[in-house]
Design goal:
2 domains; about 280 residues; Endonuclease I-creI; four-stranded antiparallel sheet; about 20% strand; alpha+beta
Amino acid sequence: MFSVGLDVDTRAYFTAATCAISFNKSLSVITPLLFLKGKIFILNKNYFTLTSNINNKKEITIWNKKLGFSSMNKISKINHLERNMIKLTPRIKSIIIGLLLSDGWLQQRYHWNPRIGFKQSINNFNYFWNIFNEISYLCANLPYKGKSIIRGKLFYNISFQTRQLECLNEMFNLFYNNVDGINKKTIKYDLIHYIDYRVIAHWIMGDGSKRKKGIILCTDSFSIKEVILLNHILIIKFNLKSTIQKEKKFYRIYINGKDLIVIKPYILPYFVDHFLYKIS
């Protein structure tokens, strides 16, 4: 009933997820004090205060634009048909790939669809909330807090997991191989068809470190063969002169200062203020 007079992308949008059409409400001010069920976190002796980018007016969300937190399905259980109707837009695919190249992961139980997991230090709450506000329509629950003790010090973190969804099989097949019954993250050549500047931006925010005037991309979880392939993808797709450097027993990709200046205008729109120092 919605297809008359709409272009292909828009028609695809209306036939996507149950969450894809979102009549947004104002979300006003969101703070971890409310968001984390009363648990107070303090950073630099100041409370976090975040606001949502969701429009105050009720309107249909456009295909491949940010859905926002209010598009999250508040029903914790959905039926099989509803679950399989949820789709990934190109925007969301790029964000997920950027996460999987850095701190994100996919889990898949036997005969089940995969789900995404993502965890950040509470110090990076601004970035974490930006990610959750993008892909919360894939989730059944709000994020949850955690803590760990590292070298005798207490650290707080925050994480979320998505639903187990059929639409995530594409991302799982892109990044994972089953080796002796264990799903192992790897780099495949098909990534060249998916990687874009949004991917690079999230990759740098998640696993990039400032090095002189350039950026080191931590690829510690990949083999040297996979790092070489990943570097070749960057060279071919973006005409970078990135190199591979060995640090201790790990191989990492270095983007020099000149190349960073070239790609900066293209990745800057996807950066959150919290991580701008990495490309400044």
